[in-house]
Fold this protein.
Amino acid sequence: MKKQTRVILVIFLIFRFDRVSTEVSLGQCSGVACDQDQVVLNNGEKMPLIGLGTAGYTDQQLLTTALSSALSAGYRMIDTADLYSNHQQIAAALEVILPTQGLTRTNLFITTKIRPTDLGYLKCKYAVKRFLEELSTP
């Protein structure tokens, strides 16, 4: 079976806030994300609704510290965008952090967003290819 890495290109993302649990009792969750705090994708995968936003983080040390803390706390989704110019820094940080926490890229969802200037079939196709390369995603 081919190893799959989870990367989601987000052009428009609408959260259904009525599905987010606002009250968590002790022992209800085994980490940050509860079943109510996830959305089931068309392929059956459960994606967390809450993730670490990385807007404004381009400093490698700061991004590595933020990602390490978030993953230690149980976050399994990282949100970025082409406009943030931090895809390569995220990839470099994850290369260092994941082995130390016993995680692999398949444990994570990475969401990114495309710039309006990259809309259209060919522009989008090449932008997605670049995103995958910048995020070190096969």
Observations:
- Residues 9-29 have pLDDT under 50 and may be disordered.
